Amino acid sequence: MNYKIIEEAVEVPVTLNHIQEHLVLDDDQDTDLIENIVLSVANYFENITRRTLINTTFETKLDCLERVMPLCKPMVNEIVSITYIDSDGNLHTIPDAEYQLIGPDISKSIAFRKTFELPNNDLDEYEPITIKVIAGYGPTPDSIPLDIQSAILQTCAAYYEGRGDDEVAILEPARKIFHAYKVISL
């Protein structure tokens, strides 16, 4: 399943005040640079771990539905909608009473009620099903585990202090935390 971002996170994983305190900056110097560093480090974390830090809305398209469908997207905490286009080109929304989100945070699945008739025989030809989900630790930086926040702060500090250098390495403690949260597909 490939997911595309429909609605970006509203918050950043570490607030500007938090990173400025960590860097011991007294004023608003380099705020644009710091914000860019935070976003870069957050993107790095999300790419390495396959997790989403702050709630973000994603969409995936499918050819058919199964009674229980693994979502293959870590940290899904809400299904926004499941829609499909029938063979006549009409859009239908499956009522949320017909399915539920099951499983651990790392590997949620959608389970349809046994009484719900899956519309697989009446679908348009190519990727007629759209599933929209919200994934992330939560809506604010406070939702992110403290060790991840700490690793982000350490990495941001290393990049900020090493700005202008040709190469800045991620500190080993931060790297270990990033890799401890890595989701591995089997």
- Widest beta sheet: strand line-up: 1-2-8-4-5
Describe the sheet with the most strands. 5 strands, antiparallel
**Beta-strand content bin:** 15-25%
What average pLDDT do the residues reach? 89
Cα distance spanning the termini:
14 Å
Total domain modules:
2
Number of strands: 8
> What's the helical proportion of residues?
25-40%
Task: Walk me through this protein's architecture.
With 186 residues, the protein is an alpha+beta fold. It has two domains: 10-53 and 143-180, Hypothetical protein yqbg, CATH 1.10.3230; 56-135, no CATH class. The protein contains four helices and eight strands. The strands form two sheets. It has a five-stranded antiparallel sheet with strand order 1-2-8-4-5, with no helix packed on it. The chain has a three-stranded antiparallel sheet with strand order 3-7-6, with no helix packed on it. The radius of gyration is 20 Å and the shape is elongated.
In summary, what is this structure?
By secondary structure, this protein is an alpha+beta fold. 28% of the residues lie in helices and 23% in strands.
Notable traits:
Hypothetical protein yqbg, elongated, five-stranded antiparallel β-sheet, 8 strands, three-stranded antiparallel β-sheet, alpha+beta
How do the strands and helices of this protein lay out in sequence?
Layout: E1 4-7, H1 16-23, H2 31-49, E2 56-62, E3 68-70, E4 76-85, E5 91-93, E6 99-102, E7 109-112, E8 129-135, H3 146-161, H4 172-180
Antiparallel strand pairs: 1-2, 2-8, 3-7, 4-5, 4-8, 6-7
